[in-house]
Amino acid sequence: MVSQDFVTAVKYELPVKVVILNNKSIGMIKYEQQQMGHQTYQTDLGEMDFAKFAEACGGEGYRVEKYEELESSMRRAFASDKPAIIDVVIKEQAPLPGHINYTQAVNYSKFLIKEFFDSGKIELPDMKKAIDRLF
């Protein structure tokens, strides 16, 4: 959301490391809209290779598409004295808070009903993972 900061880090040779969890959307805003009971609006970004963006700016870029690539990419990025972006491709899932209040649950349910009638499908977050986070 603030790409110009990376360009500044390159200009001033600041060894900043940025990890981007890339789900092809503005996930927190998307689920905030849903939690309020609204349809999502302009939150899907599409495919973006932030590693290539980093290289285009003069920094280093690492794209991680498999879990097995994560450690080596992180080690290389943090061993460098250049600014770097580690672009970690992830599956989209709802960033559910640790505690969901009644109003949030009702509004999210309204969103799901609207989504079902508009698209004919509902994509639910992985509830097992959400429950595991609580314990």
Q: Can I get a quick summary?
A:
With 135 residues, the protein is of the alpha/beta class. The protein contains six helices and three strands, in the order H-E-H-H-E-H-E-H-H. Strands 1-3-2 form a three-stranded parallel beta sheet.
Account of the 3D structure:
- This protein has 135 residues and is α/β, with parallel strands linked by helices.
- The chain has helices spanning 3-11, 27-35, 50-57, 67-79, 102-119, 127-134; strands at 17-22, 60-64, 84-89.
- It has a 3-stranded parallel β-sheet with strand order 1-3-2.
- The radius of gyration is 18 Å and the shape is elongated.
- GO terms for molecular function: catalytic activity; thiamine pyrophosphate binding.
- Pfam families: TPP_enzyme_C.
- This is Pyruvate oxidase.
- Residues 1-88 form the Thiamine pyrophosphate enzyme TPP-binding domain.
Quickly list its features.
single chain; 135 residues; alpha/beta; Rossmann fold; three-stranded parallel β-sheet; 3 strands; 48% helix; elongated
